[in-house]
Amino acid sequence: MVVGVCGTATTKTARVFTNGVYVEFAANTVATCAGSKAVIAGNAYSNPPAADIDVRWWYKGSPLSDGGRFSGTASETLTIDPVTPEDIGAYTLRAAVGTMSAQENVDLVIASAPTISTQPQNVDACDGATVTLTVAAAGQGTLTFVWLKDGSPIPGSSGSSFTIPNANPATAGAYSVTVSTACGSVTSSAATVTVRPATTITQQPPATLAVQVGQALTISLTATGAGTVQYQWVKNGAEIAGEVAPTFTKPSYATGDEGKYWCVVRSECGTVTSDTTTVTTRPGVVSVDDEAEYAGNVLGAIVPNPAISGANFNLTVAQPSRVVINLVDATGSIVANIATMNMAAGTHAFGFDASQFSSGIYRMVASVGSVTLVQPVAVVK
Q: What is the C-alpha separation between 102 and 300, in angstroms, rounded?
C-alpha cells in the first residue's frame, strides 16, 4: 500500500513461486452430461519459465493417448467426446521440466437431470389472499425454474417459489413448475389453487324505511360467501337476539322500533357490515271525517274540510306532553306551524286560516311526545 497526501493506493496481489513445476485446476470437479463432450482444462507452468513443458493426462494409473473418444492427452486440455459412464473418475495431469515434475487430480462426474424432492401443494384460498407455491429440487449445475398455469408458462416466474399476491377467480387453476439444468429437465405434479369467494353483500338494505304502527317491519339484504353465510342484525349498536337470517321481520311495528338497523354478515372468507337502514314511523291515513287516535291521544277531524278560509280542529292529549302541530303540503314541506308548546292533559281547540294557502291536499301533523297523529285537509279557493 502506498500512502500519500492525496490518498492511498494498493498494488495487485503478487504470487511468489519457488523454483519448480506447477499444475492447477480452476475447480476440483468437472461435470458433464452423459453423451455430450467433456472438456477438462488444466494449467501447467514452471519457475523459471520453460519453453517446453512435457504434459500428459493419466486415468486410473495409466497414461492416455489420443484416439477414439480421447484427444489432447499430451496437452493441458483433455477432450472426451462423447462421455460414457465408464469415463467418470479422477484424471491426473502430470507436468515435467527436466528433473522437476508435478501432478494434480481433477474428478470427472456425469451430471443428470434434476430431481424434485418436494412437490408444490394444493392451496384453498380466499379471494384477495396471498398464495405462495414452493418446490424443492436438486441437481448438478445451475437450476432454473419456470412456473406454469394450466400448462402455459408464466412470464417472469424464475424461482423455486411463486407468489400470487391477490388471489381471485381468474388466478385459480393448476400450477406446476419445470426445473432444468444443462443435463435435462423435470416437471412437477400440478398443484390446484382454489379461490373461494369473499363475503360480499350483493344487495344492500334500504337507506330509509317508514312504517305505520301495527304494520310489519321488514328489512332484507342478500349476500354471498364461502361456506355457510351467517347473519346478525343490529339495532342502534346492539345485537338483536335471534335475528340471524338475511331478512329481519317484526310482525307488528311500534314507535319504539324506530332507530338505525344494520346487519353483520360472516362467512369463512371474511366479515362485512351492511349499510344502515333508518326506520321511522309513518303516520296512519284516516278519512277526512275520522279521528286520528293512538294511545289515548286524539286528533279530531278538521272542520270544514275542504277548507276555504277558517278551519278548526280539536286535539286531545292523554297526559302532559310536548306538542308540535304543523301543516304539511304534498311534498312533505311544513307550510305553517300551528302550535309548539307543553300541553296539559285534556282536549284543546285550534284553528287556522286556509285562505293563506294554495289549493291542494295538505296534512295536519300533530306530534304528541313520541306519538304522531295525522289528519288530511283539502284547501280550495
A: 127
Q: What distance in Å separates the CA atoms of residue 231 and residue 224, rounded to the nearest whole number?
A: 11
Note whether 263 and 313 are same-domain residues. Answer: no
Q: What distance in Å separates the CA atoms of residue 187 and residue 120, rounded to the nearest whole number?
A: 11
| E runs forming strands in 38-190 | 38-47, 54-59, 62-63, 70-71, 77-80, 89-97, 100-111, 115-118, 123-126, 131-134, 136-138, 144-149, 152-153, 161-164, 173-181, 184-187
DSSP state of 355: G
- Please check whether residues 50 and 66 belong to one and the same domain: yes
Assigned domain for 6 exists:
no
User: What range defines the domain where residue 358 resides?
Assistant: 292-379
Whether the CA torsion 357, 361, 367, 368 is positive or negative: it is: positive
Same domain, yes or no: 268 and 316: no
Going by C-alpha positions, the residue among 337, 377, 338 that lies closest to residue 361 is 377
How would you write the pLDDT of the chain (381 residues) with one tens digit per residue?
Answer: 566 566 676 666 556 668 899 999 999 999 898 889 999 999 999 998 888 899 999 999 999 999 999 999 999 999 999 999 899 999 999 999 999 999 999 999 988 889 999 999 999 999 999 999 999 999 887 899 999 999 999 999 999 999 999 999 999 999 999 999 888 999 999 999 999 999 999 999 999 998 887 788 999 999 999 999 999 999 999 999 999 999 999 988 888 899 999 999 999 999 999 999 999 987 654 444 456 788 889 999 999 999 999 999 999 999 999 999 999 998 878 999 999 999 999 999 999 999 999 999 999 999 998 788 999 999 998
Residue 5 is assigned to a structural domain of this protein: no
The amino acid that residue 143 corresponds to is L
For residue 361, give the CATH number of its domain. Answer: 2.60.40.3080
Q: Which three cell numbers stand for residue 121?
A: 401443494
SS3 220: strand
Which residue among 161, 176, 196 closes a domain? 196
In a domain, residue 14? The reply is no
Query: Looking at the domain assignment, is residue 3 inside a domain?
Result: no
Rounded CA gap, 133 and 148, in Å?
11
What's the whole-model pTM score?
0.54
Where a domain ends, among 169, 196, 223? 196
CATH code of 256's domain: 2.60.40.10
